[in-house]
Amino acid sequence: MTRKAVAVRREEIVLAALERVRARGIAGVRAADVAKALDVSTALIFYHFGTLEALIIEAFRQAAERNLAVLRDELARPGPAGERLRAVLVLYGPTEPAAGWHLWIEAGAAAMRDAELREVVQRLDLRWRDAVVSLITEGVAAGEFRCPDPQGAAWRLTALLDGLAVQFVAREGTVTADDCARWVGQALTHELGVPEPALTAEDR
Question: What is the value of pTM for the model shown?
Answer without folding.
Answer: 0.78
